[in-house]
Amino acid sequence: MKVKTKSKKVNRAWLNDHVNDPYVKLAQREGFRARAAYKLKEIDETLRLIKPGDVVVDLGSAPGAWSQYVRRKFAPEGAASGELKGTIIALDILPMEPVEGVTFLQGDFRDDAVLQQLDDALAGRAVDVVISDMAPNLSGIESADATRIANLVELAVEFARGHLKPDGALVAKLFHGSGYSQLVKLFKETFRTVKPLKPKASRDKSSETFLVGMGPKRTAPVPKMHQPGT
């Protein structure tokens, strides 16, 4: 009973924080599906990554807030519908409600068949920006969770290496803790410029952070994937 009571208190505290979160309220007013839109917005405005006419791939896209943000960047006067200058291809293992002008693929990014679908959707076009908000379901076992996180980040890096333009960029979510320094090292080996950022919309209590790699090195080593249990 004590465990349940504690759990209820935690859930109630989280809900209270969420309801009163200024970014949650702003997202509701501006029509974004999640407060995460403002994380990408700050990263983009800081580094000027996304421009009308770009090809953008959104990995781990559900519920769609990042795709919504890019879609508005591609539209005259930031419109949420209508004319669109640019290409957005989104992918997630979870379903996602349609975003006008966004091509959505549902599937697991770790599956070769899904990656082939993504390649087919690109139709040979090089990518300007890869944005990855992918995160695994966490077990609470630090070593196992670090491996899962690293696998997804490494996959995003590998995809970016194979698809980005010479001046392209990768934005990837990761977490401080076990394995973080190795992922920073991977980014530095892969990109000419690497910027770590923690946007204001990322909660202070969260270990979440973002790495931005710009200008892939064509001679960079292919990431060595973590294997489960290693």
How are the SSEs placed, and which strands pair?
Blueprint: H1 2-19, H2 22-30, H3 37-47, E1 55-59, H4 65-73, E2 87-92, E3 102-106, H5 112-122, E4 127-132, H6 142-163, E5 164-175, H7 180-190, E6 191-197, E7 208-216
Parallel strand pairs: 1-2, 1-4, 2-3, 4-5
Antiparallel strand pairs: 5-7, 6-7
Helix pairs in contact: 3-4, 6-7
Description:
It is a single chain. The protein has helices spanning 2-19, 22-30, 37-47, 65-73, 112-122, 142-163, 180-190; strands spanning 55-59, 87-92, 102-106, 127-132, 164-175, 191-197, 208-216. With 230 residues, it is an alpha/beta fold. A seven-stranded mixed sheet has the order 3-2-1-4-5-7-6, sandwiched between helices. α3 crosses α4 (65-73). The longest helix is centred in the middle third of the chain and has 22 residues, at 142-163. The termini are far apart.
Q: Percent range for helical residues?
A: 25-40%
Please state the CA-atom Rg, rounded to the nearest Å: 18 Å
Strand content: 15-25%
Largest sheet: 7 strands, mixed
| End-to-end Cα distance | 36 Å
Specify the structural class: alpha/beta
What global shape is seen?
globular
| Average pLDDT level | 87
Number of helices: 7
Which terms would index this structure?
7-stranded mixed β-sheet, disordered C terminus, globular, alpha/beta, 230 residues
What's the short story on this structure?
With 230 residues, this protein is of the alpha/beta class. The chain has seven helices and seven strands; from the N terminus they run H-H-H-E-H-E-E-H-E-H-E-H-E-E.
